[in-house]
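Action item from last week, closing it out:
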Amino acid sequence: MDPMTLVYYAAICGLLSLAGPRLGGRWARFGVGVLVGLGAAAALPAIRAVLG
């Protein structure tokens, strides 16, 4: 993994962890994590294109 990808996913996971306790039970947090991960993975190519 290149450094940009590591920093990007670290930022996404860090922000998600801030909201973790407020998201409800274990399965709700898991579901939100899956959705955020899918969204982050889908957005990364566009972000890379903008940043060059």
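Closing note: The chain has two helices and no strands.
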